[in-house]
Give the backbone structure.
Amino acid sequence: MQSRGRAGGACAWRVAAGLCLIAAAFPWPTHGQEQGPPLGTVTGRVINATTDQPVFQALVSVVGEGRSAATAGDGRFTVIGIPVGVYSLEVRAIGYAPFVLSDVVIGSGKPYTVEIALDPLPVDLDAVTVQATYFRRATQSLSSTQRLETEETRRAPGGFEDVVRAIAVLPGIGVPVEGRNDLVVRGGAPFENLFLVDGIRVPNINHFGSQGSTGGPVSLINIDFVRDVSFSSGGFGVRYGDRTASVTNISLREGGRSFSGELNLSATGIGAIVEGPVGAGSFLLSARRSYLDLIFQAAGQPFVPRYWDFTLKVTQDLGARDRLSFLSIGALDDVSFQNSTADDRFDNRRILAPEMRQYFGGFTWTRFLARGSVRGTLGRSYVRFASVQRDSLETVPPIFSNRSVEGETTLRTDLDVIVSPSVDLESGVIIRLADELTYDISIDGALRQDDSGQPSPLALDTSFTAFAGAAYVQMGWRIGGALRLVMGVRGDYYGTIGAWRAAPRFAIRLGVDEATTITASTGRFYQAPAYIWLIGNPLNSTALKPLFSDQIVAGFERLLRDDLKLQIEGFYKRYRDYPTRVWRPQAVLAPSGFEDATNDIPYGLEPLTSQGEGTAYGAEFFLQKKLSRIPIFGLLSLTVSRSKFAGIDEIPRPGAYDARVIGTALAGYRPHSAWGVSGKFRFATGRPTTPFVGAGPQSGQLDFTKYNADRFPTFHALDLRVDRRWNFRGSQLEVYLDVQNVYARKNVTDRYWNPRTGQPAVNDGITVLPTIGLNFEF
């Protein structure tokens, strides 16, 4: 498999080099060949960050260009006749903190569409001239929250234009396996992360996703649809619940108010986008197909994944006070195997093929009140799994088979009200009905062994429904211009296990001076067991409780310049009622997200109970430079942490995702509007791993008497990216070259038992992976 990885890298190099030569040799028109310089347009809305209400008479200025426009009553604006280039937009409005949006790429193709949220100013600062900043301060989650804008997610080196990989550069986040989106946040497992898209809850945001968790190799979200991403690694407000580690809130932009389109080729697929006006609003529509199957076949890989995804967003203005939006994202994921040789069958025996059919989406209605807004969201998610793993003899039935469906409908209302200039209120009610839960699963007894090593095969065919509800209320107080307090409580009911839980949370932010802020937060965070964990044993539905973590976060933030921010935070998390494995008393349940039934029991399909405890603590350093008048951008993040968990035997051991040190350095330079170059260096100490039993009847099984006693080697890699843009009359072409793992580091991605040699073996990631992307806008 290692030789195939090197062959894949060499093949990718040849493809990328050929496309680069074609792009360089083609006589693209330049600005000088046009009749005058190409011009572009920026359009969009300005809204209140607390209530989403339109901001009237906000002044939007193109920095350095002398062009501006004021917003109309619906918050919309348009600035035309801008020479193509990369700009910042400065937005000012009476009663709001001024804000600078950087990295606004004006091209001669379709108009650049933005939505800018402004934070209300304390009443005593309303008449004071306030310096505009490139960084917005969160109003609900006062600590551990970062925001990335459109271009910051798109241009990340080594990110494959994947929004989930783009946020992995932020502090507190580790990625245990290269090439996957299994985010590990402050020692928590990937199943502890919450993902929202336009406020709609998404069980798994990835193609070929892991059931009961949130990881996968590539996300469903088209990067060209992303408006911004807000990521909170802890201390988040009571609006968000049923997760204990993090919240990623992805906001998608609206479609343009004039017809336009895109054709794009990215690192993982080829697609098309069309957008334009419809009724009293706009639409966005995209379709993508991966070409991973072509790369895998060319590289000689014995398994071939392929996927499609489709996105539709429609927004309508229903008068001056009401807005309605519809979102639907669907995906088709398939895997085929080339089993013509014994070696192919041997390699494929370790691959659990997660074929999937999934969609999520829904309707969101927003009504603007005199001093606030109310929002109603009806969402639906559906996933059909067909996961099969066979041995090297391709026996029938397979050694593991999982054919299941998980469908859930959610109805929620959220009310945001500005009670007075110093007090704001949030409240909401959430109802979730999992009305379609069916499972047809079998595991060979030789792979599912109990605590004494005896075979315990699993064969079940079951279905059930599940109900969950929640309500929350939160108030924020501004005391003077320097102090903000946020206090709230959330109540959750988990019908599948008949449990009520209440989660109080509190946060404070103190402005020491105009540039320095101190933050602190504390609270309790609950999460229900995944549906699939309830069926591995008849007693699981009564033995499992909602796990919870109590968290304390303290931080220091300073604006060194208007475009340069320093942030330092410390955190402590204490876990209780964590799911534990009855047959593996040393271990808590921490699904890897890349299950192999020959190594261990997958998906929590075993006897479980809620006796686990754990702690995670650490410190984070984050320095971020936004693109501004100085054409340099970048960030430096460093996390030093520890995590330990105790299973049924009550002996603390390193957590499955205990990466002691995680660091990322990213830097970019845009010397000209047509060119950009950037690089990213990643470093992480190896995560814990459990060795194999080397001899005896259980040879090749994981040795849980030495649970997490070993570690993988240290990971590090350098990624580089070069962007080039050409502007024509009415269209724009962008080409980029992205090279992942430039110096060909052989990073270990996994360990497995090789029955041919009777020894453990390792899988290396692809040593170097160059990709080329093209995006044509018209």
